[in-house]
Structures are given as C-alpha cells and as structure tokens.
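Table 4 source record.
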Amino acid sequence: MTTPKLIRIGCWAAGLANVVGILVVSHFFTNDLLATTFPEVFSQPGNFLILLWGCAYICGGLAAYHVAPLFLVFMVEKYFYAGSWLYWYLQHGDRLAELSAESWLTGFFFRFYGLNDLLWGLFFLWVYTRVRRGAPAQ
C-alpha cells in the first residue's frame, strides 16, 4: 500500500472513530452520564466539537500533502484529549466500576479513550513526517 493511500485510509479511520464513536457513546448527544462524569470535556458542545474534529481529520486526509502543519494541530489536539483522560483517570479512576455498573459503554469509554487518542496522536505525527516535504514523486 502506498503512503498516500495509507494516509487517506488512516485519516478516514480517525475521523470515523471520532464521528461514530461520539455519536454512539453520547447516544446521539443524549447521554447525561457522559456529560456529568466529565463536563469540562464531554458536555453537549464538547461532544459536537469531537464530531467536527473527526470531519476535519477526513478532510485533512484528502489534502494531506498540501496541509502538512495541520497534522501537528491534529496531534496536539489528540494529546490534549489523552492528557485530559489521564487527569480524569488519576482523579476519578476509582469510580470506573460504579460508572460501568451504571452504563457499560460509558465505563468502557472512560477506561480507554485516552489510549485511543494517544495512538491517533502518534499516527498524526507519523503523517506529518511523511507529508512535510510535499507529495512523493510520481
């Protein structure tokens, strides 16, 4: 598989992970448990912004070689979410069993969303290192 194709597929995967993931976990923006568990990040506006970031990843993948610095922005955004997860986990990780008992999906999400974002951040860094010099010779 060529690097441009891998980048496009990866950006689609990252985008769909955000879009589909937040729609499912937030129950189409109606999951009050998600919002009350970490309102600084997962309020309704916050969830909508996660959806918009997913759309931006997909668009970035379509023009990757023309917007290389954008992938550094994507990386920083993903590390912000990974850092917010670590903060929440260190402060409230003891609530995970209770959270999972109330909603297995919300509990699962809070166990792993930061690791997911960390991995996508590494992907975006990899993309940046590949596209920063422009399109490959044909």
